[in-house]
Amino acid sequence: MYQPILKNKLNELKGLNNVSLNKGLNPIIELVDLNKKNTVENVIKYLMEKISNISENKHIYIDTPTYLYNELYDYFGLEDIETKHKFFLEIKKIFDKEIDFTPVISFDYAYESEKKSYKENIKFFKKMLNDFDNLAIRIFANETFSSSDELLISQIYDFLGDELENKYITLIIEVSKKNKSKVLSLLKEITEEYTINQITLVGEAFNNDSRHSTAEVYDRIKNHHLLNFLEIQKSLNSEFVYADYTLADKIPSKIEIDPLKGFLYYPFIKFTTEDGNMCYFSAESKGRYEQYKSLCTSIIEKINNYSIEHCSTCKFIKDVSSGTIDKFRAGSTWKYRMIAHHISTMADYFK
């Protein structure tokens, strides 16, 4: 099973919704954007509308992450545990029987003391246990692994062990090159001491590197998160679930646009290959977006197993290359289409 992580932003949701229904995946959706809505009901109905195709027969994980600035979290005052609890109950009510979902609990440490933080987080977790049979706990990776999250998990299992017996608990852990050894140690301890139904390992599949060449670029880029995932799984002789941020940034970068010159970029396409790695195709000139057509031709020529049968994006690439489609010059089009291709490819990898 594969778990793509997507923010509730238009292009990421469009990418998810363009994936074939027969792909095995349980998306994790991070609610960070209001999408010009001012009520919980409207935010969730907007989400349902944008994932109407893919949500059929899929189990969706919903998170309100605290690792980045979260417009939605601040607007609805989700730092208050009562408000946050009501927020998830409202999602449950709106989804009703249409979408099967699991709330993801990202611990919040924005309290006046560490003791208060532990107390409030455990109180919130207990409230959620009363209303949901499936819950996920998310641990984020910083430069040093979050010892607070580790301690909270042990306290939750110590204090609420009996109440967890008939629940389905997923642990979502961030993995990076810096914290890989610490994650290994933590997983050994957790799997020995606690009953956890599913462990998902999250990471960034590809880091965005700056462009150094002025000629057309064709680069092979390793999926280092996949390598970390496979290494951890082999070391512990266990089955975990793979999750990544698709081709989007974990923390979106702010783009400064010159008011006089506008924003010009090198047309590029990130094409995930069947081995979970990526081919990066970049054009030679800034601002000439008709070059997407030649990039599509390069993909068809250089990707050995390229097939229009793979997904809707591969069919789109063929149509652009052959000149049967005219509307292909917008970067946003390629963002959501290549996200859809990445999700399809990784779902096939882990089927």
Automatic annotation (TrEMBL):
Pfam families: Beta_protein. It comes from the Bacteria. This is Beta family protein.
